[in-house]
Amino acid sequence: MELKNFLIIEDESDLSAIILNMIEVFGAKGQIAENAEKAIKTMQQNKFDYFIIDLTLPDKTGLQLYKDIVEHNPDFRGKAIFTSGLNVSDELKRVLVDDGAMFLAKPFTIEKFQNLIKNLL
């Protein structure tokens, strides 16, 4: 069985390294992109099953990046876990409800993260 592949889009390098390590421990694989532009380029060269997207990226909001991804690849609708330390906006709430995407508030515990990931594997 092929391992699920996650693209981690997070501009905080320490956090993205921790997330990648946890994903690998849970039995999946992943790659890191520190901004939206790099995420799009990485997607063009690799196949991903899920996305972990920080809502506040340096070059674009995580929500806008998700919308761009889904616009070009409708199969990715709902295949995202958004992360943020900020409150959930009405626009994000609609995506979570309508698309079935997930949200993980920062700071999060290993248990909360593990529960989300294990449900996807």
Protein model, in words:
The protein is of the alpha/beta class and 121 residues long. It has a single domain (5-120), classed as Response regulator (Rossmann fold, 3-Layer(aba) Sandwich), CATH 3.40.50.2300. The chain is built from five helices and five strands, in the order βαβαβαβαβα. It has helices at 13-25, 36-45, 62-72, 90-99, 110-120, and strands at 5-9, 29-33, 50-54, 80-84, 102-105. A five-stranded parallel β-sheet has the order 2-1-3-4-5, with helices on both faces. The longest helix is centred in the first third of the chain and has 13 residues, at 13-25. It is globular, with a radius of gyration of 13 Å.
Main attributes?
globular; Rossmann fold; 121 residues; alpha/beta; 5 helices; five-stranded parallel beta sheet
Layout of helices and strands:
Blueprint: E1 5-9, H1 13-25, E2 29-33, H2 36-45, E3 50-54, H3 62-72, E4 80-84, H4 90-99, E5 102-105, H5 110-120
Parallel strand pairs: 1-2, 1-3, 3-4, 4-5
Helices and strands, in order, run as EHEHEHEHEH
At the fold tier of CATH, the topology name is Rossmann fold
CATH class: Alpha Beta
The CATH H-level superfamily is: Response regulator
Q: Which percent bin holds the helix content?
A: 40-55%
Q: Summarize this, please?
A:
This protein has 121 residues and is an alpha/beta fold. Helices cover 45% and strands 20% of the residues. It is built from five helices and five strands; from the N terminus they run βαβαβαβαβα.
